Amino acid sequence: MEIVMKVISVIYGFLWGDLFTLPLPEGGTVGISLLVLLLVPAGIFFTIRTKFLPIRLFPEMLRISVEKQKGGKSGALSGMQALIVSTATRVGMGNMVGVVAAISAGGPGAVFWMWVTALIGCSTAYVEATLAQYYKEADPLYGGYRGGPAYYIHRFFAKSRTGNRYSLIAVLFALSGLLCWCGVSQVISNSVSSAFYNAFEIPPIVSTVILVALAAIVVLRKNTTVKVLDIMVPVMAAFYFGIAVYVTVTNAQLLPDMFRRIFEEAFGLRQVAAGGFGAALMNGVKRGLFSNEAGSGSAPCAAAAADVSHPAKAGLFQAFGVFIDTIIICSCTAFIILLAPEEKLAGLEGMALLQTAMGHHFGEIGVVFTAAVLWLFSFSTFVGILYYARGNVAYLFGDNWKSQTAYKLLALVMLFIGGLAAYTFVWDLGDIGIGLMTIFNMIVLLPMSGKAIRLLNEYTALPKAER
Questions:
Q1: Which residue has the higher pLDDT, 182 or 249?
Q2: Alpha helices in 50-159 (DSSP H)
């Protein structure tokens, strides 16, 4: 077991640790991890190739998100439903725990770099989602469509889905995804049980059994997942957004100072040494990438299931999802923290930082708010990742209910175990899984991006009535 732990630690350090450091003026340094090295340049490249899609096509993203959804193939998702499924997994612990960690380590300036990361991540999300939609397949088990990186990776290497049954990189991606989502299941239940114990002194076994039972009712039924998320995601996002709006309005006089702190510390202007800039930059970038998942290959599993009029439309929905996740929801968490007095938050980090800030704004009920929001975010994340897993399980084991049910039961077991004890090596396994997913996805995303760009140009050339 000790050898396994060491192997996991080495792989984790390779993926998420500092691959190398860059010197900064006045003696500071900034560490660059492998995933940052992959995702940030790729995001900039895609942003340029799409002619600054997040800005140029933002009105189009808004338009398609409010247009009337047309009926499609039985069992298929609409573009908005695919956005809701992906938002369920994006809008999760990264929006709370991730933002808190970024501000704890990098200060208010990290928020600015999270925003920047989201803008370039929109273009990456567009490319991977469009490819997933273009190479989607009919789903004989659940109805509708399925797909994702495993399927377009297979097409890239095997050239034909009807030829070789497997492609090595596609298999590795699918396995990494299943590994990641099992690890995330444990993180979810542990966060929920801890939050409810702190808020209500509910024993972990009680909150965990309730969470697992509710999750089982949803994920073990054939097509309950999307119906639940259709209701849950808009409600939880509106609830959290309402809390943040209340905090922002009631502290409007503090907004100029808050934004000044964000922009000054983003470039290390308030810090004595340049190390402040490095901390703000890297923590903002890393947590932004973790939260919006652009490039990891998760959200394309939902994008492939959509029945839309053009593949690029699915890509624009997912690009808009990155905007919702980081620019809106992550900013909500940041504003709640940064609009609380600095002296009250001094020396605090982790969830204690957010709970103290919520306590300042809402009193004792703030702890209850935090627990409720975390439960909603975590539950929707679990339901969403089990939806993602469908296509990957089918790619690896074929179209049969035995393998689909077996993975769901495994994830439920991991959800139960995680609520009772925190096994940090399993958390690391989840991070390793998403890191490996990103690497295998990016291997083909760059060479295949030309197809997504051509589809974008084709889409924007259409009259609005035909889009």
A1: 249
A2: 53-56, 58-66, 79-90, 93, 99-106, 109-134, 149-158
